[in-house]
C-alpha cells in the first residue's frame, strides 16, 4: 500500500510529463497485481488453517448485486463489454457475509470480463426454495469438461497460456469455491462450447 500510495503521488505530480507518468502507471499496475496475489495467498492460507472468520449480518441482495456490478464497471468498459443485472423478486433482507459474498462475485465477474472478448456479462440473482442463487454468465471462451474437473484446484488455470496472456495466480476460483462451502453453499460451473460459461454461487 505504501508503494501504491507513493506511485499515485508520483503519477499526479508529473502531470503533463508523459514518460514519467507512464513509468508511475506501470508501477501502479504491477503493484496492484502484486497486492492481489498477496491477498489471495493470505486468504488461501487462512482457509487452509481454518482461521477465516465469517460474519452473519442482514444484507440486501439486490443492493449487493448493484454494488458489485458497479465495482467492475471500469474493467468492463475498457473492453466494451456490456454489463447486465437480472434480479428476480428478491427478499429485502437475508443473513450472510456481504464482504465474502461480494469477494466471490467480484472474482467471478472479473474472470468473466477477462475471458470475454466481446458481448456481455450478466449477474443474475434469484431465490430457489430457501436458497439464494447468484449466477455470473458470459459470452466468452468456453471451458472444456476436462478443465472443469480441475478448475477449483489450487493454482490451476485453464491451460499454461492463460497465465502468460491474462495473469493471475490460479487461486481465485479455489478461494471462491471454499468460501462458498464455508458459508454453507456451493459454487458450480456450466459451459457450452462457443456460447460461454455460467458460474452459480448457491
Description:
By secondary structure, the protein is α+β, with helices and mostly antiparallel strands. The chain has eight helices and seven strands, in the order ααβααββαββαααββ. The strands form two sheets. The chain has a five-stranded mixed sheet. The radius of gyration is 18 Å and the shape is globular.
**Average pLDDT for all residues:** 88
How much helix, percentage-wise, in residues? 40-55%
Rg, Cα atoms, Å: 18 Å
What would you call the structural class? alpha+beta
DSSP helical segment count: 8
**Strand portion:** 15-25%
Q: Going across the biggest sheet, name each strand in turn.
A: 2-4-5-7-6
Identify low-pLDDT runs.
none
Termini separation: 33 Å
Shape, principal axes of CA atoms: globular
- Reading the helices and strands in chain order gives HHEHHEEHEEHHHEE
Oligomer classification: single chain
* Main sheet record: 5 strands, mixed
Topology:
Blueprint: H1 2-13, H2 18-49, E1 57-59, H3 61-71, H4 73-77, E2 82-87, E3 94-96, H5 98-114, E4 120-128, E5 131-138, H6 145-150, H7 160-166, H8 172-182, E6 187-192, E7 196-201
Parallel strand pairs: 2-4
Antiparallel strand pairs: 1-3, 4-5, 5-7, 6-7
Descriptive tags:
alpha+beta, 50% helix, 5-stranded mixed beta sheet, two-stranded antiparallel sheet, 202 residues, 8 helices, 7 strands
Task: Give a quick rundown of the structure.
The protein has 202 residues and is α+β, with helices and mostly antiparallel strands.
Amino acid at each position: 500500500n505504501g508503494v501504491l500510495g507513493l506511485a499515485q503521488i508520483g503519477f499526479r505530480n508529473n502531470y503533463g510529463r508523459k514518460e514519467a507518468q507512464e513509468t508511475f502507471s506501470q508501477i501502479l499496475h504491477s503493484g496492484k497485481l502484486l497486492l492481489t496475489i498477496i491477498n489471495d495467498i493470505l486468504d488461501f492460507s487462512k482457509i487452509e488453517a481454518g482461521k477465516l472468520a465469517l460474519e452473519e449480518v442482514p444484507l440486501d441482495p439486490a443492493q449487493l448485486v448493484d454494488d458489485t456490478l458497479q465495482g467492475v464497471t471500469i474493467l468492463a468498459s475498457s473492453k466494451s463489454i456490456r454489463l447486465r443485472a437480472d434480479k428476480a423478486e428478491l427478499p429485502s433482507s437475508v443473513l450472510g457475509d456481504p464482504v465474502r459474498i461480494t469477494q466471490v462475485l467480484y472474482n467471478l465477474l472479473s474472470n468473466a470480463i477477462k475471458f470475454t472478448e466481446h458481448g456481455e456479462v450478466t449477474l443474475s440473482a434469484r431465490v430457489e426454495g430457501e436458497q439464494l442463487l447468484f449466477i455470473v454468465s458470459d459470452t466468452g471462451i468456453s471451458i472444456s469438461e476436462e478443465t472443469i474437473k480441475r478448475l477449483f484446484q489450487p493454482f490451476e488455470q485453464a491451460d499454461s497460456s492463460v497465465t502468460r496472456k491474462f495473469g493471475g495466480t490460479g487461486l481465485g476460483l479455489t478461494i471462491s469455491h471454499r468460501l462458498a462451502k464455508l458459508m454453507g453453499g456451493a459454487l458450480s460451473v456450466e459451459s457450452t462450447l462457443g456460447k460461454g460459461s455460467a458460474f452459480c454461487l448457491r
